[in-house]
Write a structure and sequence with these properties.
19 strands, 5-stranded antiparallel beta sheet, single chain, alpha+beta, 5 helices
Length: 359
């Protein structure tokens, strides 16, 4: 029959097999190229929130799956930086997008590092490292004026971890509020004031009141069962912290010479590039920031002439109950550049904060 092409069966089968082989080879090549182009995921970590004594909420986002399906995601945490899934971790499903994790079983007052993670067939990727300190297991104390304070056991002592702000002795007698500088200087009896004579420092800013030493030495300034610490009791606190891992650089011993950062929260303190390494105002060694839970704020002080000490973010000073001669008494202070605690004396008409310690 003219015009009709015929194909021998063996030749047709050979051609068909060749075509299939080419297609399969091409598909495999495409798959290999796809696998070569895929990478591990891209992940970010969210800051911690809802922090409690034993838990916190942390999350993250899988920004890119890297070209391969996400098979696992969550957060991992540790007391060492850059945790991995070998450490404590959560599992929050699969796929791209945002997720949140509630982490539990934390130890009170402990500094943790957290990273989000995501896994695909190429491996596991981690987000940026974020950090936080779990809440301390605080107690509570109420003074005669109805002010409520947090308390905390540190070593063998139990301290108020807020500055006293009572305007009455614990028997109900009022303490005189003196705002005038000359009147403050010439006072020979108990008096208090608010920083810069602004009561908001005792309420919304929670800095407490400043008292002259005459208010301290009367003996019933603190709530019943509590007292203004002696010079020796301040030393006991310093030695406990120094001997138990609260020095900013991890060394042991040295009394109060390296513990200022462990006594102080970050809020309010002046920070600059000139701040000493390990000092309150420096952002290095974040794991030591307020490690003790003492929560010192820069509540300033009042000089004996009635003027206030430096700027609001510079210094904090607390009375002891111990005299040093007829007209002077011992105190402790720290500044934004402090590495350690300063022990000094001032005249009794000066003004300083008060922390009470349990009897």
């Amino acid at each position: 029959m003219t015009g009709v092409q015929t194909c021998a069966l063996p030749i047709c089968i050979t051609a068909l097999l060749f075509t299939v082989a080419v297609v399969i080879t091409a598909c495999k090549k495409d798959e290999e190229e796809d696998e070569e182009e895929a990478t591990i995921p891209t992940v970010s970590t969210y800051a911690a929130s809802n922090i409690t004594v034993t838990g916190a909420t942390v999350g993250g986002s899988v920004i890119s799956d890297g070209g391969a399906a996400i098979t696992a995601r969550g957060v991992c945490w540790s007391t060492s930086n850059n945790p991995t899934t070998v450490d404590s971790n959560t599992e929050e499903g699969t796929g791209n997008g945002h997720f949140r994790s509630n982490i539990n079983g934390l130890t009170a007052g402990t500094f943790y590092y957290v990273r989000a993670y995501a896994t695909n067939s190429l491996g596991t990727a981690y987000g940026n490292s974020v950090s936080f300190r779990s809440e301390f297991n605080y107690g509570s104390l109420t003074d005669v004026a109805g002010n409520v304070y947090k308390t905390l056991t540190i070593g063998t002592q139990t301290w108020m971890v807020e500055n006293l702000k009572t305007t009455k002795y614990n028997n109900g007698d009022p303490i005189v509020n003196i705002t005038d500088n000359d009147a403050w200087f010439y006072a020979t009896t108990a008096a208090y004031c608010w920083l810069f004579n602004d009561q908001s420092f005792a309420t919304s800013k929670n800095y407490g009141a400043l008292y002259n030493f005459y208010a301290v030495e009367k003996g019933n300034l603190c709530p019943t069962g509590w007292h203004v610490p002696t010079d020796t009791e301040w030393t006991t606190l310093e030695n406990y912290l120094a001997d138990n891992g609260y020095n900013y650089d991890g060394t042991l011993g040295g009394g109060g010479s390296k513990i200022a950062k462990s006594l102080s929260i970050a809020t309010g303190w002046y920070s600059s590039d000139n701040s000493y390494v390990g000092s309150i105002g420096n952002t290095d060694y974040p794991e030591y920031r307020n490690k003790s839970g003492f929560s010192a704020l820069p509540a300033s002080c009042r000089y004996r002439d009635g003027s206030f000490c430096q700027s609001i973010d510079y210094i904090s000073r607390w009375w002891s109950s111990t005299k040093n001669g007829d007209y002077y008494s011992w105190y402790r202070s720290i500044t934004h550049e402090s590495i350690g605690v300063y022990r000094g004396t001032d005249q009794d008409m000066a003004g300083a904060s008060v922390r009470c310690v349990k009897d």
